[in-house]
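Form 12-C: Joint structure prediction
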Amino acid sequence: MGSLLAAVASYLDARAHHGRWLVRMEDLDPPREIPGAQDEILKALEAHGLNWDDEVVCQSTRAELYETALAKLADMGCVYRCRCTRRQLQGGIYRGTCRNRNVPREEAHSIRIKVPTGQIAFTDLNFGRVSQDLAAQLGDFIVRRRDGLHAYQLAVVVDDDEQKITHVVRGADLLDNTPRQIYLQQVLGCDTPAYLHVPVITNANGVKLSKQSGAVALHDSQSGGNLENVMRKLGHPPPSTLKGAEVSELLHWGAMQWRRKRLPTHLDPEG
Ligand SMILES: [Zn+2]
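Section 2 - Result
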């Protein structure tokens, strides 16, 4: 239900603005991928009438694009090799330990980008002004992991640019990722899309509902009821005349009625 909420929000926002709605598989971490999960996601989208435009893009097949962006960052002197292990760092802010170490290429390393001091700010279409001081709150962040996998932040920025994304509509759990992405866009010379974050559904402990947190799977056979449910949460409750309507009708109504200012920034926990 949590994933459906973000999917429906982005779908309706795209349709309401006569845009195209694109699906991207953010499957950068092959070991964590569950076989068949992608087919299941696409099947669920179809069952809920969420028809996408263009071909589905899979990040797992785009390493070359991400490497090209990394090379560009390296040419500009914006990135460096870091030999620190997660255990050495114990979370928290990265203090730039390896900035001037010149860690040899042969040594196991991640790649970090130098961040500037000062606020990176943007105006979210739902949450308003959001800003973050990357240096003070995060430190130089990883763009390629020690195991060679590209970081989500880098991949997303490269893909958004390559796919000419104008509007990103997604869950608010990614709100605090956005300043990092905007910084990467600035360094790489990419346009910054408009951002619209929608609240995430959480359980009583404030944990985002997902398969990992034990949420029940969606039943495609209840697609109409599922849509009604998330549209209500998004501040767009379908009228009683649409009770039992086809998913296409519900979505059509939703796109016609869509007003960003009706979106909530918070949802009461489930259960
Ligand atoms: Zn380091």
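Section 3 - Comments
The pocket of zinc ion is lined by residues 82-84, 97-98 (CB under 6 Å). The chain has nine helices and nine strands.
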